[in-house]
Amino acid sequence: MGTIYAIANQKGGVGKTTTAVNLAACIAEAGYPTLLVDIDAQANATVGLGVAKTTEPSVYDVLRGDVSALDAVVETSIEGLSLLPAHPDLAAATVELARANGSDTRLRDALEPVRERFTFVLLDCPPSLGPLTINALVAADRVIVPVQTEYFALEGLAGLLDTLGLVQRRLNPRLAIAGMLLTMHDTRTRLAHDVEQEVRQHFPDLVFKTVIPRNVRISEAPSYGVPVIHHDPHSNGATAYFELAKEMVARG
Ligand code: ADP
Ligand code: MG
Question: Where in the numbering of this chain does the AAA domain appear (predicted)?
Fold first, then answer.
């Protein structure tokens, strides 16, 4: 049975998708069969892996119950990495799921049959605490919370932790925090250093040792439809995501 990780933070632009794509690629490259599930209607993870966001069937059809997850999974250019793609139609799912009773477990139930094929399943969440993110937290065993090392880093984290606690109590007792991940860290600035200290003090033992640097290769890679380890395997960004993959696998 694969372990399911949700990559979640209701803030946009903190590095969720970048982490989902690059971490998934590094784990797959290390030899673990991996599935990335894109549940953001923006479909950035889908496009970032070189798959068209008009691909059908998509995770939207799976959440509606029209198609089984196995039939919607596609292969990517990275050996061992499969994708359950998102489609812009997924925006409608937010409304549909909010209306339907008992819809919080749709994703969990849909992923049940694919879980056996993969060692790791990563869920790239949208920037909200809406029904899609709740579905991801109900399906997940662990959560990774990317935190951008900038002035407002801690803002919003309390709300996220409250939501995690609520999901743990009411819907998914096995949910655990795998770690908070500092992203887009600019080693040259005092601010990044201070924010790192603050987050580590606030959440001792909860922050990954690995820090993802701000790196232009990371931001270029999606326009080529590849993860940074294929765009520039020797870049600081690629090295950092390899380190993170090792740390995540070691933490178990
Ligand atoms: P989210 O999914 O949380 O909204 P993204 O992963 O899409 O955030 O990242 C937001 C933007 O920041 C994207 O343009 C991405 O390319 C860029 N970015 C993310 N991580 C890095 C990094 N480590 N270095 C440079 N740019 C980054
Ligand atoms: Mg995103």
Answer: 3-177
pLDDT 10s digits, 180-189? 999 999 989 9
pTM (global) more than 0.80 = yes
Ligand nearest to the CA of 10: 1
Distance CA 48, CA 163 (A): 28
* Assigned token pair, 86: 């998102």
ipTM above 0.85?
A: yes
Sorted by where each starts, the structural domains of the chain and their CATH numbers stand as 3-251 (3.40.50.300)
**92 CA from centroid of ligand 2 (Å):** 17
Confidence grade of residue 242 (pLDDT, cut at 50, 70, 90): very high
Query: Which residue's CA is the nearest one to ligand 1's atom 16?
Result: 219
d(CA 164, CA 180): 13
